[in-house]
Amino acid sequence: MEARGRLQRLASKLEPRGEEVIGLTEQRVLKAVKKVVRPLARFGVARFFTWDVEQGAAEDTGPRELTVAEVAPGMLAEVAIAAQKPPGEFFRRVRLGDRCFAVFDRGAPVHMRWLARRPVEVPELGLYVCPEEDEGYLYDAYTIPEYRGRRAASRSRRLLCRTMLDAGLRRGYAYVLADNRSCLRTLPGIQKLLFQLRYLHLRGAAPLVLGTPAHPVYALEDIPAPRLAAKPQSGVAQAAGSGDTRAASA
Fold first, then answer.
1. What is the pLDDT of residues 114-140, one digit of tens each?
2. Structural domain of residue 189, as residue ranges?
3. Where does the pLDDT of residue 230 fall: very low under 50, low under 70, confident under 90, or very high at 90 and above?
4. Integer angstrom CA distances of residue 206 from 12, 31, 40, 199
5. What is the rounded distance in angstroms from the CA atom of residue 188 to the CA atom of residue 165?
6. Does residue 204 lie in a domain region?
7. CATH number at residue 217
8. CA-CA distance, 115 to 34, in Å (whole number)?
9. Which terminus of the chain has a smaller tally of CB atoms within 10 A, N or C?
10. Residue 32 maps to a domain
11. 23 falls in which pLDDT band (50, 70, 90)?
């Protein structure tokens, strides 16, 4: 218990507060500390954002030389490999009804993300993002390293929002970890911070979450009954920066 308390205080001191975006030096220090303690614990801050889909559909951003499209079944394996994920995981998500979108440069996938309308787990928190019938959740965004900082993610936003609008969705949700400096700096103005949750995940234990979750984030037992028809799947919404893919943005 004493070690748990120390790690919790360490997480509180090292992670940025509010809407602060940490500098490059602080980011490197934080990543170094996380690497040292990773065999025993993971900690951080998850920030949840929302936006109006109609506003997003009116955007026209990102490099014009990049193309964006929904990923066809025949391309799923190639996109999964580019995202450093097992192709079987991508096919599983499609079977659950999720849709994958990707940005391409001369036919090669350079950025990809998923749209879900079902409960999806946030693994850092052990909680679930559970969109309503007229809402969507964007998760597992990934930009290949050589395209980060080149606004590849922003190129996909308009198509995603138009797709959501055509499907009758009015609001979108996503989360970003607070140490993902590049993603936080490039978030579009239409995205509004809802809340943030600190977490401490000790090896072999359930995550400790500091803060009060609100819609669309729920504990498994608190998911609204109408949404339980879409069975939650564990470990899907992975985030970027430390071997998994936590919203590694442009």
1. 999 999 999 999 999 999 999 999 999
2. 45-198+213-246
3. low
4. 18, 22, 13, 10
5. 18
6. no
7. 3.40.630.30
8. 29
9. N
10. no
11. low
Amino acid identity of residue 10, one-letter, is L
- Token pair 């009954």 is found at 225
- Nearest alpha-carbon partner for 19 in 43, 50, 48: 48
179 lies in some domain:
yes
Confirm whether 61 is domain-assigned.
yes
Are the C-beta atoms of residues 176 and 187 closer than 8 Å to each other?
yes
> Are 66 and 152 a contacting pair, CB within 8 Å?
yes
Inter-axis angle of helices 2-14 and 24-37, nearest 10:
160
- Record the tokens describing residue 30, joined without a space: 């934080």
For 112, phi then psi, to 5°, come to: -150, 150
Whether pTM exceeds 0.70: yes
Span 170-203, pLDDT tens digits: 999 999 998 877 677 667 677 899 999 999 988 8
More confident residue, 23 or 69: 69
